[in-house]
Structure formats: C-alpha cells, structure tokens
Design goal:
Length: about 400
C-alpha cells in the first residue's frame, strides 16, 4: 500500500462567487465534539439555528430550517415539493441559475414557462404579469441575486403579481441572504432557499430554506407524494419540529458551523451587515472603474455581494485568474454560459467583505494586469474616496 501524505490545503483569500473565506470562530465551532442527531444538546443547537434563520430571512415562518447539501439542494427541495406533474411554473430567466430553475421544474415533471431577458439586465415585471395572465401557473420563481451576472433582481415587486392571481412566490436567495435585505414576510415570499457558504459565512454543505403557511398548505394538498424522499419537507419538518421524528443523520459539525456563523450575523446586526457589504462593494467598483475597467451591470442593479467586471480587450481572462491564484493566493471567479471568458466575478461576502481586502485586491490586480500588458490606472485613491 502507498503511504499517503497528510493533506495541507493552501491558505487562500476566497474572493470568488463562493465559497468565501470564513471567520476563525466558525472554524473553531466545527472542531467541537460530534453528537448524535437526536442528542438533546444537538436538538437545542437546531432550535437556535431555526430562531436565528428566521431573523436573517426576516420571517415568522414555522418551517424554516437547513437542508443537507449546497444551495442547489434548496432549489430542488422547494421545486420538488411545490410542483406536481403537469404544473405550470413561470420562471424569470436572465442568468445561469434562473435557467437551472427551469431545468429542475422539468425534472419535477412540471412545465417551465420561461420569461427570458438578457443576462445582466433587469426583469420587466409587466411582461411577467402578462405571461402569468395567459398561463395556468400558480408558482412564479425568480433569482434575487443572480450569481452569474452580479445583478440584484427586484423581488420587492414580486408581490404585485398577486393582483393577477394568488400564486406562490418562490425566490432564490443563495447569494443575497446575510448580505442584502431579503424580507421574506415584508415582500410576501412563500418559499425561499439559500446556502451556507456565501454571505452567511459558513463552509459549503447546508441550504437554509423557509416556507410560508400558504406554501405548506399547497404541499400538504398534493395529489401524490413528493418523489424526493431526502428533501421531502413534510418529513423534514417533523425532524426539526416538536415531534423529532428521525429522517436522516444530520451533519452535526456543519450545524455547529452555521450556528456560529448566524451568531456572528446577529451580533453584527442585519442593517450594519448590509451596510458593510454595500460600502465595500461600492468601494471596489469605484476602484475598478478608476483602473479603466467596466462593470457588467448598471449601478442601480448591482449586487453588494458579487461584482461582475468586464475583461478588457486584449487580456486573457483565465491567465489573470491563474496568476492571482498561483502568485498571490487570491481567488476570483470566471464567467458562466455566454459570459464565459468575458467577465470576472469578484465576491465580497461575509467575513471577506472588508476595506482591507478591497484595497489588497485592487493593488494586486493592477500589478497582474500590468504584467499582462494592460495599462491600468490606479484604483486605490478612488476606492478610498468611495469609502468615506
């Protein structure tokens, strides 16, 4: 047998679309003793998670919990539970992950009614309302923070669709929860999912979800059982609720991590956390534009957690990312789909959204671009000016 060496992952500054680097308190929490999934102490941990998640989602929904898996498990859970064979779902599509919603609708034997918009451009809610009127759909799905483009969608306008019909409103908050206001109850959202590894500030492995009473009524009235046993919310709620009925072996260490990450969010305060993400994003954008780089999304629609910048002509996109990673241990992301090779995606989420990291990235990126033959202006002064 070969003698396998210990694995020591390098220390990176993760400024891509996720995962993001996490706080030491979260790492320490993960090293706590593993408990059984029905241990009374672990059940108290689960209760704490639910209470803090309701605060961060801004909801009073009883069915608010975490699923095993990444954000895609949250997407699959909400869709698989709400959709029955033949159901129509109106999906607002203007990016990679809204396109994935369509895929999962079809896999759930539903019919995705796409309302397509250019990637990086805002959604015209009048068009969505028109499509809804001409359909039989009783679900409308939208991505709040489109990770593939760095665009914030107007979820606050979704509830206007209720004037057309009493539909279930479903929102992807994977790249917004913990970094931008989501306002589940305020915005009339019925089902929402996110992830642990972005603005919440934990490692990848859990997907927070929340369901309104209206959504749960629709699920309980299904003609057929949910085909996905592992993500059947009617079974999961019995494990997370007072009944404590066994469903699966919960990843206890991951729950310790998200509990501590949520504790950090609550200690900072939602408004203060949103403001920090907004200020650092504006600071980064000002620096990038002063360097001569252009953002993909119009200022009023840009995310605070994920910034998409166009690759300048004559610069090889992948080489810049490779040099940042290999020479400086800084990770940024590439574009997806039609934006592949055309943009960089720079994340400022959770613990990595700091003034110091913004200035470090700008300084390093300027050096790398110069080495690649692009004469970038200095973004440091513009960034510092934007921070005041």
């Amino acid at each position: 047998m070969p003698q396998w060496k210990e694995f020591h992952p390098p220390q990176r500054l993760l400024l891509g679309p996720g995962p993001a680097s996490i706080d030491q308190r979260v790492l320490q929490a993960m090293s706590s003793p593993v408990l059984g999934y029905l241990d009374p102490a672990f059940l108290r941990c689960m209760d704490d998670i639910q209470e803090m998640l309701r605060h961060v989602f801004e909801t009073k929904n009883t069915v608010t919990l975490t699923l095993p898996g990444t954000g895609t498990s949250g997407m699959q859970c909400t869709l698989a539970n709400l959709i029955q064979s033949g159901d129509e779902v109106v999906v607002c599509v203007n990016g990679y992950f809204s396109n994935r919603i369509c895929d999962l609708v079809e896999r759930s034997e539903g019919k995705a009614i796409r309302v397509d918009f250019e990637w990086g451009q805002p959604i015209d809610m009048d068009r969505v309302a028109s499509v809804l009127k001409s359909s039989r759909a009783d679900i409308v799905a939208m991505v709040h923070a489109e990770t593939s483009t760095g665009m914030r969608q107007p979820i606050e306008k979704l509830r206007d669709l209720l004037a057309v019909r009493d539909v279930v409103l479903l929102v992807d908050a994977v790249t917004s929860l913990g970094g931008l206001p989501v306002g589940i109850d305020r915005n009339g959202i019925d089902a929402c999912y996110s992830c642990s590894q972005k603005a919440i500030g934990a490692p990848p492995g859990l997907a927070p979800v929340t369901f309104s009473d209206k959504a749960m009524q629709k699920i309980r009235a299904r003609r057929t059982v949910c085909r996905d046993f592992y993500l059947d919310i009617t079974l999961l709620e019995k494990y997370w609720g007072k009944e404590r009925v066994y469903h699966h072996t919960a990843p206890t260490s991951m729950h310790y991590a998200i509990r501590e990450a949520l504790r950090l969010v609550c200690e900072e305060g939602l408004e203060a956390r949103w403001k920090r993400h907004e200020q650092n994003s504006r600071m980064l954008q000002a620096g990038l534009e002063a360097m001569g780089l252009a953002m993909l999304v119009a200022p009023e629609h840009r995310l605070w957690t994920l910034n998409s910048v166009r690759v300048p002509a004559g610069v090889e996109e992948a080489r810049v990312r490779t040099r940042l990673l290999e020479e400086h241990s800084i990770e940024i992301g590439a574009g997806l789909g039609p934006l592949k090779g055309r943009i960089w995606r720079i994340g400022l989420m959770g613990a990595v959204s700091t003034r110091e990291n913004v200035l470090l990235l700008l300084e390093t990126l300027e050096k790398v671009l110069a080495a690649e033959g692009f004469k970038a202006g200095s973004g440091m002064k513009a960034a510092e000016a934007a921070s005041h």
